[in-house]
Amino acid sequence: MGKAVHRAFTLPQASAIGCAMSGNSSGNETMAPVRDHMRALFGFDEFRGRQADVVERVMAGESTLAVMPTGAGKSLTYQLPATMLEGNCVVVSPLIALMHDQLRMARANGIRAATLTSVDADWRETVDAFRAGGLDLLYVAPERASQPQFRELLHSSPLALFAVDEAHCVSEWGHDFRPDYRQLRPLMDGFPSVPRLALTATADARTRADILDQLGIPESGLVIAGFDRPNIRYAMDHRDGPVRQLATLIAENPGPGIVYALTRRKVEDLARKLAIATGRPVLPYHAGLDPDIRVANQAAFVASEDMIIIATIAFGMGIDKPDVRFVAHAGIPKSIEAYYQETGRAGRDGDPATAMMLWGAGDFAQARQRLSGVSEDRRAGERARLDALAMLVEAPGCRRAVLLRHFGEDPPERCGNCDNCLDAPEVSDATELARKLLSAVYRTGQSFGFGHIQKVLTGAEDERIRQRRHDRLSVYGIVGDEEAYLLRPLSRALQARGALVATEHGGLALDGDAREILKGEKTVEIVVPPKKGRRKPRDRGANPVGDPLFDALRELRRELAVEAGLPPYVIFHDATLRELVARRPGSIEEFGAIGGVGTKKLEAYGDAFLEVIRAH
Ligand code: ADP
Ligand code: ZN
Known about the structure:
This protein is α/β, with parallel strands linked by helices. The chain folds into four domains: 11-224, P-loop containing nucleotide triphosphate hydrolases (Rossmann fold); 232-359 and 395-422, P-loop containing nucleotide triphosphate hydrolases (Rossmann fold, 3-Layer(aba) Sandwich); 427-527, Arc Repressor Mutant, subunit A (Orthogonal Bundle), CATH 1.10.10.10; 548-615, HRDC domain (DNA polymerase, domain 1), CATH 1.10.150.80. The chain has 28 helices and 17 strands. The strands form four sheets. The protein has a seven-stranded parallel β-sheet with strand order 3-4-2-5-6-1-7, with helices on both faces. The chain has a six-stranded parallel β-sheet with strand order 8-13-12-9-11-10, sandwiched between helices. A hairpin with a 5-residue loop joins strand 15 and strand 16. Helix 14 packs antiparallel against helix 15 (376-394), helix 24 crosses helix 26 (574-583) and helix 24 packs across helix 28 (599-614). The chain is globular, with a radius of gyration of 28 Å. Zinc ion (ZN) binds next to helix 16 and helix 17.
């Protein structure tokens, strides 16, 4: 690769910039050349969220831990400085798939990037380029950090920055501890003047403190962006026909989507049924598939613009597909943390996306049953995680507010972009009914399923009831028609909160705070089930439907992608295509002003796209 266009623009050394920037409150002024450079490289006009703060620190040579949600644009915070500062930037990343994905995206923007992994054939060129100072970014796995040859290589040419991606892997408190990350500190300590930038999307307070400590970053270097993903619409519904419910969601979302199911069998089953029900390309993904098929299915999904992948939670780590339009859960996730991470794979490109969870009381019952197999020291924590999840699905108010509060934020009461904000559910105080239900469970001996309990409460004529003499109980027939329809959702809610649990033989038994409810010390509120069709259909996706120019631009993008062996989104995001339709640039200069069009992409694709625009 020759010198990229942007290299013509060079800033003084990091330390010099540090002096210029520190103690200067007009950060905007000093950041102006950086912003210009961002415009030329990526075609973005403005920094997003706290990107500017992070970039400013990196340019000033200060070490930083950036905690930013998925899709916030973490890569830009090291890629941009890497192209401006003198010297190479080393990027540590835990997965080869992630590195190669980043590599494609970086190169598409004209950034001089390379990877040193076990599967790369171009080691010699990469090492030569690094020695000659001809690389912006060198991606490596943490295992390299402990190798003496690698240390020597780093000493052979000036370094601008150490970037440590997925930095929570360094902490045992994080959810993906990788012991090799512990080798990074000794390596980086060998280069005391080179700043460090650690990046992660998920780290609670304890993990954050640990990362700072383990990577030698001062406390003042912590930059936290909020957890909110405003473009994701959260929705949760009781599961009462998953194929139909998912098919509806898929029909409303023409773009790519992920459906998570709990077991391999469910994955296979849903994949088959949804392929028939929707007519869309649908592929399964789970650990039981032949590895070649798994890799092929994942690659097909990454390249596709309309595929649905049905997967166990084994799928997702290491996938950076920005145009995923929905993530659905066909059963409950493990925890709110897992839910946030899994749904976070939707809408990384900032366009509207949906996160839909279909849950059943049985999901909670099973999860609670599994608690008994958990070691005692972990059981309380696991139970608390389930309780938090139950609160989320049962919440009558804003889902986003529940999520963000869970992560320690103080969000507004309503977000306006979740199911409950868009269409407030009816809430009912069901304490009295709950007492009737719980006492029926108690008086029948805590061994009957919901169906029987319901019959007892509504006074049904039934052989089994007569045999057991349940028609003589005080609870027989105490629930009238006007309340009977609330029994099932109430039972679900009581199971979700743990006041009712399923016995081994499918019966219901009291547990949790059932006694307090019975004694009138606790209240029970439930969301009244929606009448069929209550939910408004989601607004159409952001893309114009049936616009001939938009379709033609997409077609061109697809052709170029196939030709280059790249996923379409590496060429341009949908947002860029939409802006092209709206502004119809007539010249290369006008084309270059479109969002997402940097110098490199302008050169590579400008003429081809202009031609299509002129022809429409
Ligand atoms: P993260 O690693 O934080 O999940 P990425 O670095 O993958 O996020 O960026 C997410 C998406 O946001 C990318 O498609 C990127 O092109 C886009 N993006 C990043 N920064 C900006 C910006 N300042 N303006 C517009 N789009 C941006
Ligand atoms: Zn809301």
